[in-house]
Amino acid sequence: MASKAEQSEATRKALVAEARRLFAERGYADVGLAELVRAAGVTKGALYHHFGSKEGLFREVLRQVQGDVADRIEQAADALPDPWDRLSAGCRAFLSAGADPGIRRIMLIDAPAVLGWEEWRAMDEAASARHLADALADLVDAGAIAPRPIEPLAHLLSGAMNEAALWLARSTGPTDEEDTVRELTGLLDGLRTRG
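The line above is the sequence of AcrR family transcriptional regulator; the predicted structure tokens follow.
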């Protein structure tokens, strides 16, 4: 027989898993509280106990999605020895993750609307901006880009990639993703030191 702590954790996991599935399929606004708890096989009281509200549950789903995307980016980047190749691979991995309709809906479309711009940006920064800033700092240290303020550059690139992922989500051209990666590569190449 499962302990109370194990039952509590199972309830929490069921709520997050079902919320992630439903939010990815239909979006936050089109998923009701009753449907969430029914899908997870728990009570509304359990949801309120663990997350305080539907918004609190969404916040946890977003945290999980952001963590999964960060893991994909790290995995792609860490597989390469060259800091420049790591940055490029990480950026491409982000665009690829953004092509997933569920990730895009939760992380880029619903999150700013549900949580507000400031909270969404803070969570985005905590989840992935530090990886981008670290990659850029590695490039400065390696002499691949000239010394410069890293924080504004990381924000500029992060914003560009978020916008590119959203644009790709609505695009219909057969070469749009390839074109976007090529343009991103050109943008990044503009940062490189020559010599």
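Note on the example: The mean pLDDT is 92. The chain has two domains: 1-52, 59-190.
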